[in-house]
Amino acid sequence: MLFFSCALFITLAVGVHLVPYFPSVTSFLSSGSSSSSDSSSSVIVNRDSCFSLLHQVAFDFQELSNNSKRGSWKWIESENVVDCDFQKLTKNDASDLLNGSWVVVAGDSQARLMVVSLLELLLGESKMEIIKKDLFLRHCDYNIFVDEIGMKLDFIWAPYMSNLTDLIMGFKEKKSYPDVFVMGAGLWDMLHVNNASEYGVSLKSLKDSVVLLLPVSSAFANGDGFRSPNLFWLGMPKLISSMLKTDEKREKMDDVMWQAYNDELYRSKLLQQSGGPLFLLDVHSLSNNCGADCTSDGMHYQGAVNEAAVHIMLNGLLIESNQKL
Ligand SMILES: *[C@@H]1O[C@H](CO)[C@@H](O)[C@H](O)[C@H]1NC(C)=O
Ligand SMILES: *[C@@H]1O[C@H](CO)[C@@H](O)[C@H](O)[C@H]1NC(C)=O
Ligand SMILES: *[C@@H]1O[C@H](CO)[C@@H](O)[C@H](O)[C@H]1NC(C)=O
Ligand SMILES: *[C@@H]1O[C@H](CO)[C@@H](O)[C@H](O)[C@H]1NC(C)=O
């Protein structure tokens, strides 16, 4: 496919690197869209509909000789989805896309699984095996600089909402912002705090701190929902109570509590889907789709789910940078 020619990706790398944190770029983007002609506004509609189709994936299973199953995934082949031309990025494509950028993934165990999948794509599975041990040191940060592509990736163990808010304040203080920032916390909070209304309060202050970080906060106030695609929220997975490993988990992490936490997420208006700044990587929909075969402990899902989340994120970055239309 010509589509993924090198030239496109070199421009894209610049895009990921600059957008959206600097006012000059932001105002360039907004004036670009407000002075758009009819044809480019239809592009924007298209773009929005492709964003909304990103999670239309299906899972499939292959029986392994040892009686376990390996899941794989692909985008469904409905006409609308095919029109968006989503692509599973190869190692090279993903490397071009993230060349020279600073990626931060912060949150609880779900965020760590996202890092595993992203690094598996960028480094290959065998290199990944070597670093997995360090990455999985419990409750620790992990930092890696991928030489070949000059990419810095920080995983930050931030299991509570307040940890995420602190992190954002830190970026603001240092005036140093990642190019791609994926955050998500909920599971740990549900187990250790187990209070949805408190979670909601912290989500709102998280949202306020994200909005302060962005140079386009007035756009939110006007309700025109400026899109900052380089900010992602990593949703909580589907919890399968009967498979959870401890009594405490089974008691505290049931469907009712999950729903209460999720309701707070929408109420906080943190997500673009409710007019906020973060694009949801909908791990719940993906894990629910993949089903009980994809998890052994009812809360952490195997590769296919996280791999899909990574490719959805990368395709989100592609759409946003207008490389696809
Ligand atoms: C079955 O084999 C696959 C790969 O060969 C391995 O990843 C998986 O852990 C094995 N499952 C069990 C239950 O031993
Ligand atoms: C990353 O970008 C630099 C220049 O910006 C280029 O020299 C290098 O070859 C790129 N690396 C990859 C793997 O694309
Ligand atoms: C995260 O927040 C909790 C509660 O506010 C705090 O006790 C903990 O030290 C923080 N962890 C990190 C890594 O900052
Ligand atoms: C949840 O937290 C709120 C605010 O701190 C408190 O008023 C409420 O009693 C808590 N709910 C439960 C079930 O502990």
From TrEMBL:
One of its GO terms (biological process) is xylan biosynthetic process. It is found in: Membrane. It comes from Solanum verrucosum. GO terms for molecular function: acetyltransferase activity. Keywords: Membrane, Signal, Transmembrane, Transmembrane helix. Residues 1-18 form the signal peptide. GO terms for cellular component: Golgi apparatus; membrane. Its main location: membrane. PANTHER family: N-ACETYLNEURAMINATE 9-O-ACETYLTRANSFERASE, PROTEIN ALTERED XYLOGLUCAN 9. This is Pmr5/Cas1p GDSL/SGNH-like acyl-esterase family protein.
